Amino acid sequence: MTDARALGADEAAFIAAARSHDAARFALITERHRRELQVHCYRMLAHYEDAQDMTQETFLRAWSKRESFQGHAALRTWLYRIATNACLDYLEKRNDRTPVPADLPGAGSELHYLQPYPHRMLPEDPQESVVARETIELAFIVAVQHLPPRQRAVFILRDVLGWPASKAADALELTVASVTSALQRARVTIRQQLPGRRLDWRSPAAHELSQDERSVVRSYIDAHERNDLDGLTSLLRDDLRFAMLPDPGTVTTTAKDAVDGWVAGGLFQRGHDDWRGITTTVNRMPAAALYLRTPDNPEYRLFAIAVLHIADGKIAELTGFDATDKPWLDLPPAL
């Protein structure tokens, strides 16, 4: 994210479009940054649809401020600055975009507004720091939400995107000392939220799923299709963390209690026992899209998506999302 030169081809073309008020040319130049800016907004907001809106707001603000761009910084840097401040303005107006205390004892706090991020919307040729897997996984996105908004922005700009303190300070209209202090506090919170996870976001990071992860997802789907409760239980760790959003109640539970709870809630019972599934990926994480066929419907209809964190061949975390009415997940509505 460092600026290699004061005025490159992108910057010169942008200035020419701005001076000629050529909206079509402006859109063509800025559009190539959409996906990475949307990932940035998603990290700030943890909500895919909000990230889409704020990315569009970024382009609207960029157009209205186009004549202020002089090419002293890279166009990408300028757009990131606008996107960051658009997200901060949005968060300032919302009081429902922070973690809330969990309803269940010992469950900490929850993010009822969390949405998964579709794989197809990630940048096609990403810079390592933009969409390294560790910085797009659900656990990371949730951890970042525990930071106050401006501290969150500092952490993402400095530790995820690798901006120097002076550039982050300029983008947020803060002093370098304030940025340094905010980053130190943010790192403490992130360490508390992600115990045992690697915290060096700029070292080489994985992008693809491992063979072990793919195997576990296939087994998870197979257990659903065969209504194999013992097989499903064997895939879960005994300290499983489970959430079904947007319902409240992130819990740490044993594998048996988790499956018993799903059965008690009606799953794998008559009318909810005819499953099909497909393997997919969201947030660069393994996921299973589950389809249910009910007695009154000849098709298997999209029911939910289960996003899995797999450790040592077992499902350690399972975050379920209602997958209906989310066409942006790019999943077939029926099988």
Automatic annotation (TrEMBL):
Residues 140-188 form the RNA polymerase sigma factor 70 region 4 type domain. SUPFAM superfamilies: NTF2-like, Sigma2 domain of RNA polymerase sigma factors, Sigma3 and sigma4 domains of RNA polymerase sigma factors. Keywords: Sigma factor, Transcription, Transcription regulation. Pfam families: Sigma70_r2, Sigma70_r4_2. InterPro entries: NTF2-like_dom_sf, RNA_pol_sigma-70-like, RNA_pol_sigma-70_dom, RNA_pol_sigma-G_actinobac, RNA_pol_sigma70_r2, RNA_pol_sigma70_r4_t2, RNA_pol_sigma_r2, RNA_pol_sigma_r3/r4-like. GO terms for biological process: DNA-templated transcription initiation. Residues 31-95 form the RNA polymerase sigma-70 region domain. Signal peptide: none annotated. GO terms for molecular function: DNA binding; sigma factor activity. Coiled coil: none annotated. PANTHER family: ECF RNA POLYMERASE SIGMA FACTOR SIGG, RNA POLYMERASE ECF-TYPE SIGMA FACTO. Interacts transiently with the RNA polymerase catalytic core formed by RpoA, RpoB, RpoC and RpoZ (2 alpha, 1 beta, 1 beta' and 1 omega subunit) to form the RNA polymerase holoenzyme that can initiate transcription. Belongs to the sigma-70 factor family. ECF subfamily. This is Sigma-70 family RNA polymerase sigma factor.
